[in-house]
């Protein structure tokens, strides 16, 4: 036990030391070349080394996200106010190229409890241009907001519609292969992912299949028109069909004493054996203004002869964002995603206002005492402000108001309020 604790402590010290080095390095920006010149070193936005012909490159970067949440009502077990402060993410990232056509990416997230996790460990081949083939551990491609990095989403947490089925864009600590390509105004991807410890009775891995297609006639910062379609299916023998949601506040599960994670569909072990999902996505941006919306539907099939009925979980969101200081949100067609806001004035930074409405409904969520099936619903309003102090630091504040139907906590609350704060450093 002491040996394990010692190893964990060493890893944590190494991680903190490494992060400190990169933060200090970022104080100097610019490019250094050798007498060749054949090597360029960049220290702005992480630490990067590359040959001039881009045959080889190496970049170190990462993010730190420190959060504080205050919440009450349905967000807690007893309805009384609770709060939690925690590191949402402390991630070290390594990426680069080798021999022109090979790419690699490693992302290690350091957890508070010492159980660090590989968010990504992948190798990709780009020699079949414009097609890229990637293998390893990475999240499946499903949805606009999920494709956008947590560094650059406009709210602190992503939409609750993804709680309808987290498997659609979570690698489940497994391995996968994905083909993707972007050309003209089109982007598409197709992937197969095998989650860890997800096997049938014969020991064969069950798979998750993902398809995503995007068309973007306008695809540059401040001038975006984005439309997308998603499909996902997983092979599984049986599962419990449970659906839970944090209702947009991560602190509800970080708080082990009084935090509440409402159950929108009950756990019924072995009663379901079919699972598919599809989604729509749309976005428009003009200058500092952007609007985006997504729809997700998950169909859960009950086993033949089961006491349960088929379940349908569907959700949608609408988000409006406006940058008061005039900067547009970045956008990248390769990946079909939004990127960050870069302040024009490093003294005052960039200020962004955001509003999002989320709605998630589950049909045939469970049976009441007399055996009649009923539906559940959750609604969340989020209002927020983001201050991009510079290219590295972002400070965010969100106010959330949640309301549920046929879902309550132990104190019979079906609504709640929360305030979330975040300080982020990206390098």
TrEMBL record:
Keyword tRNA-binding found: no
Alphabetically ordered keywords of this record: Signal
Signal peptide: 1-29
Pfam families per record: Porin_O_P
Annotated Gene3D superfamilies: Porin (2.40.160.10)
Keyword Zinc set for record: no
Protein's UniProt name: Porin
């Amino acid at each position: 036990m002491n040996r394990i604790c010692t190893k964990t402590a060493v890893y944590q010290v190494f991680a903190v030391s490494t992060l400190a080095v990169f933060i200090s390095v970022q104080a100097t920006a610019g490019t250094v070349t050798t007498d060749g010149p054949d090597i360029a070193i960049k220290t702005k936005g992480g630490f990067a080394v590359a040959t001039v012909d881009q045959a080889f490159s190496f970049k170190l970067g990462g993010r730190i996200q420190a959060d504080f949440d205050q919440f009450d009502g349905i967000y807690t077990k007893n309805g009384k106010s609770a709060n939690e402060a925690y590191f949402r993410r402390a991630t070290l990232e390594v990426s680069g190229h080798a021999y022109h056509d090979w790419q690699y990416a490693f992302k290690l997230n350091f957890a508070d409890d010492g159980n660090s996790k590989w968010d990504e460990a992948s190798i990709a081949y780009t020699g079949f241009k414009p097609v890229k083939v990637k293998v390893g551990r990475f999240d499946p491609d499903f949805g606009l907001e999920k494709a956008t990095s947590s560094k650059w989403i406009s709210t602190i947490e992503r939409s609750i519609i993804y709680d309808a089925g987290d498997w659609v864009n979570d690698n489940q600590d497994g391995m996968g292969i994905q083909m993707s390509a972007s050309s003209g105004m089109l982007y598409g991807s197709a992937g197969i992912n095998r989650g860890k410890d997800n096997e049938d009775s014969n020991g064969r891995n069950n798979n998750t299949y993902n398809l995503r297609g995007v068309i973007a006639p306008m695809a540059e910062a401040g001038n975006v028109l984005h439309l997308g379609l998603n499909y996902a299916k997983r092979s599984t023998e049986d599962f419990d069909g449970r659906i839970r949601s944090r209702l947009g506040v991560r602190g509800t599960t970080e708080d082990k004493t009084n935090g509440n994670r409402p159950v929108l569909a009950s756990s019924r072990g072995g009663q379901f054996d079919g699972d598919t999902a599809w989604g729509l996505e749309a976005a428009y941006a003009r200058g500092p203004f952007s609007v985006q919306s997504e729809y997700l539907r998950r169909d859960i099939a009950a086993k033949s002869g089961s006491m349960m009925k088929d379940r349908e979980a569907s959700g949608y969101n609408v988000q409006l964002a406006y940058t008061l200081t005039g900067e547009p949100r970045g956008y990248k067609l390769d990946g079909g995603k939004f990127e960050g806001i870069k302040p024009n004035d490093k003294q005052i930074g960039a200020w962004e206002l955001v509003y999002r409405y989320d709605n998630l409904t589950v049909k045939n969520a469970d049976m009441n005492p007399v055996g009649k099936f009923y539906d559940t619903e959750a609604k969340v309003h989020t209002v927020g402000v983001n201050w991009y102090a510079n290219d590295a630091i972002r400070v965010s504040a969100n106010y959330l108001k949640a309301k549920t139907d046929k879902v309550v906590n132990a104190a019979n609350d079906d609504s709640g309020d929360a305030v979330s704060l975040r300080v982020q450093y990206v390098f």
